[in-house]
User: Which sequence fits this backbone?
């Protein structure tokens, strides 16, 4: 089974990215052939400052490595190190109806948030489909917000294969984590673009402040509380083991507990979980050449698969001779 996923370098990574996507990416690498890339072409839809894009791209690489991605098993690389994806995106655009792209929620959400409706933003799903199909991926681990894009990819693989009457492209399936939607500080989906994140690698002081600002209701300390409608509980649950989660569930229901206590415990659990990675990241950041070398090796592995797919695609549509 071949696994593939991508993360845009469009801002600092956060708990939503970790529990929705990255944690799965790292564990899947122990058992499957995995390709993970940093989607810098996609990030051009929002980051239009060269120095910033370089920096954010390197940050994502550092984040993955610090969190323990085993690059001897998984190929980690930059999207634009395999530029043929843009060729495949073009080819897919010639077999895909405009209506399919017009139905994309993510495009509509981004426009509603005030992003410019560029062609890049509109055709984002075509490039994403090319990313997946060029590596003949079977499974794509992502958060729930990306599922529609994977379904579009399935459609596009079908359109291509039907048009050219050959099974060239493999139909991928999404793979959802146990936490497909992680709430942010305000209870909406945690997202870089909502400013409601808990970043993975902030200074502990800043992280603590963010956690203390998780929005909770005004139920008095003595009153029983409902864990299932509490934002802080949803975040606690991601970090605590099941026995501890059960204890907190009981304490919520009994009353006599303030939200400050929960937040304090979240801060401790966060620190226990991410401190080792933060320290590893600081060390790795001192060796940019090593990071560069790993990305380069990852790209070599990815390119070999991409080239083979593109030869089949080009032959199927008559761009080169059989
Ligand atoms: P953001 O919304 O912060 O810009 P991205 O769109 O770059 O995040 O998402 C990168 C990956 O992380 C995707 O697979 C996405 O599904 C996952 N992800 C992002 N935010 C969340 C969240 N709040 N809960 C679960 N998964 C998430
Ligand atoms: N659209 C994804 C996101 O915003 C990033 C991405 C680009 C991706 N290409 C991909 C994810 C291919 C999975 C597979 O998170």
Assistant:
């Amino acid at each position: 089974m071949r696994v593939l996923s991508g993360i845009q370098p469009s801002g600092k990574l956060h708990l939503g990215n970790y529990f929705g996507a990255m944690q799965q990416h790292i564990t899947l690498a122990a058992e499957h052939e995995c390709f993970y890339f940093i989607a810098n072409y996609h990030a051009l839809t929002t980051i239009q400052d060269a120095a910033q894009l370089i920096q954010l791209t390197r940050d994502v690489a550092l984040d993955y490595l610090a969190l323990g991605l085993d690059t001897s098993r998984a190929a980690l690389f930059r999207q634009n190190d395999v530029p043929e994806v843009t060729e495949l995106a073009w080819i897919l655009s010639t077999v895909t109806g405009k209506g399919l792209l017009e139905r994309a929620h993510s495009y509509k959400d981004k426009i509603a948030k005030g992003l410019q409706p560029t062609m890049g933003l509109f055709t984002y799903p075509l490039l994403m489909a090319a990313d997946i199909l060029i590596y003949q991926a079977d499974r794509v681990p992502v958060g729930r917000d990306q599922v529609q894009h994977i379904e579009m990819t399935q459609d596009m693989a079908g359109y291509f294969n039907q048009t050219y009457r050959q099974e060239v492209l493999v139909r991928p399936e999404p793979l959802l984590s146990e936490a497909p939607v992680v709430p942010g500080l305000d209870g909406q989906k945690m997202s870089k673009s909502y400013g409601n994140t808990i970043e993975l690698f902030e200074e502990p002081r800043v992280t603590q402040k963010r956690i203390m600002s998780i929005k909770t209701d005004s139920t008095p300390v003595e009153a029983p509380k409902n864990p299932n409608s509490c934002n802080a509980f949803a975040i606690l649950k991601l970090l605590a083991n099941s026995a501890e989660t059960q204890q907190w569930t009981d304490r919520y229901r009994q009353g006599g507990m303030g939200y400050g206590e929960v937040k304090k415990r979240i801060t401790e659990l966060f620190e226990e979980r991410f401190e080792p990675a933060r320290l590893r990241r600081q060390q790795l950041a001192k060796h940019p050449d090593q990071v560069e070398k790993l990305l380069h090796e990852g790209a070599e592995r990815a390119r070999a698969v991409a080239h083979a797919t593109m030869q089949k695609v080009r032959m199927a549509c008559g761009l080169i001779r059989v």
About this structure: Residues 150 and 174 are 6 Å apart (CA to CA).
